[in-house]
Amino acid sequence: MKGRSRATTHGPSFLRWAGSKRKSLALLGSSYRDPTRHYVEPFAGSAALFFELGPMVGTLGDLNGHLVNALRQVRDHAAEVHRRLLAYERSPDAYYAVRNRFNEGSRFGIEAATDFIYLNRNCFNGLWRTNLAGSFNVPFGGHEMGGYPPLELFQDCAKLLRCAKLRHQDFRKTITSAGASSFIYADPPYFTASERVFVEYGKRSFGEEDLSDLVRLLVEAEQRGAEIALTYNEAMPVPAIPSHWHVHSFSVTRNVGGFRGSRKQHGEILYTSFELPGVLE
């Protein structure tokens, strides 16, 4: 299945991410049937599936410029980013000082990347959320976040990232650029009509119009020859899913609403443009 063997067993990504499918990687990875296909992920997030699969060539896109900078800096300077990260104090006061600096500074360079990773590893549940002014405003997550990933994981991720194009752009551009030999895995933010989405990009949230555009563009990519895998919340209907796409149910554990005491199982759907026999059926 995988394009290459992984040299570490420490974990798939150096980032935490609310809504991550980390516990379902074995299931999701089975949809990447042909390792020669160009792996495309238009909502990169922690890129956990990309790091798990280790494709020979790929494209990771995201509208979050801070995230893309962090991926680029780890790709090019993994040891230095890790060294700087370990030098940061882990306390509420230090966290809010870094958050202020992060919101007032640049989104480019090693310091910005280290700040981003520090906030990601120490904030509440790995959320990315901004206020209307575009400032990151997630509070300190306490000391239940555990230790930082080892240097070996950063270096392993760096090797895999060198095989990918890293694009700071809207999902529409990423999918439109995907060719006939692509495999596209889309894991967009979820939304409801009554609740604000936690995973935001800049000053706006992913909404119903975006979801409709996403499905339309995925269908067009399939018509060009791409293979498609799309994950979404089982409780939220996805508009205009082609009737020939296959539907596979699985469950994930989420604790976005709190810490250990509020972890709950939620139903998820994996839509694929091709038949996927076996454990997901």
Which descriptor suits the 3D outline?
A: globular
* Strand segment tally: 7
The CATH first-level class comes to Alpha Beta
Largest sheet: 7 strands, mixed
Spell out the helices and strands N to C.
HEHEHHHHEHEHEEE
- Helix run count: 8
Question: How does this model look, in words?
Answer:
With 281 residues, this protein is α/β, with parallel strands linked by helices. The protein has one domain: Rossmann fold, CATH 3.40.50. It has helices spanning 25-29, 48-53, 65-87, 92-104, 110-122, 151-161, 171-176, 208-224; strands at 38-41, 58-62, 164-168, 182-186, 227-233, 246-254, 264-272. It has a 7-stranded mixed β-sheet, sandwiched between helices. Helix 3 packs antiparallel against helix 6 and helix 4 crosses helix 5. It is globular, with a radius of gyration of 18 Å. The relative contact order is 0.17. Mean pLDDT is 87; it is low at 1-10, 196-202 and 256-262.
List keywords for this structure.
281 residues; Rossmann fold; 7-stranded mixed β-sheet; 8 helices; 7 strands; disordered N terminus
Concise account of the structure shown:
The protein is α/β, with parallel strands linked by helices and 281 residues long. The protein has helices at residues 25-29, 48-53, 65-87, 92-104, 110-122, 151-161, 171-176, 208-224, and strands spanning 38-41, 58-62, 164-168, 182-186, 227-233, 246-254, 264-272.
